[in-house]
């Protein structure tokens, strides 16, 4: 059973930084992609960043230049380094993993990020 466990959320002032982690219960090289999504109150869940098995990354325009996603295959963990945080970054952040061959998508339970002004 695949489990994704996020950590690292919390309360931070605008302009501050946080690093989120997502630890998988299996080898993350099994996943075609892993991503970070977020959902703010009253809004739809949106993609923040995604990393492929090869390590290439893509970001939402709203976080480019501020957020960096990385992966550590040895630790079966992906990270989201968030700098220059804004109040509009406040949301629950979810980790996601895709296995194309199985047509399966896995989600973590989410971690709350709150950015105060």
Would you write up a description of this structure?
The chain is mainly β. It contains no helices and 11 strands. Strands 2, 4, 5, 6, 9, 10 and 11 form a 7-stranded mixed sheet that branches. A hairpin with a 4-residue loop joins strand 5 (46-52) and strand 6. 30% of the residues are buried. The mean pLDDT is 97.
Roughly what percent helix? under 10%
Number of strands: 11
- Global mean pLDDT: 97
- Given as residue ranges, the uncertain stretches (5+ residues, pLDDT < 50) are none
Portion in beta strands? over 45%
Please outline the major beta sheet. Answer: 7 strands, mixed
Ends distance: 40 Å
Number of helix segments?
0
CA-atom Rg in angstroms = 13 Å
> What structural category do the secondary elements indicate?
mainly beta
Shape: globular
Main attributes?
117 residues, mainly beta, 7-stranded mixed sheet, 11 strands, 0% helix, globular
Topology overview:
Blueprint: E1 4-7, E2 10-13, E3 18-24, E4 33-39, E5 46-52, E6 57-59, E7 67-72, E8 77-82, E9 91-99, E10 104-107, E11 111-116
Parallel strand pairs: 2-11
Antiparallel strand pairs: 1-3, 3-8, 4-5, 4-9, 5-6, 7-8, 9-10, 9-11
Brief digest:
Helices cover 0% and strands 54% of the residues.
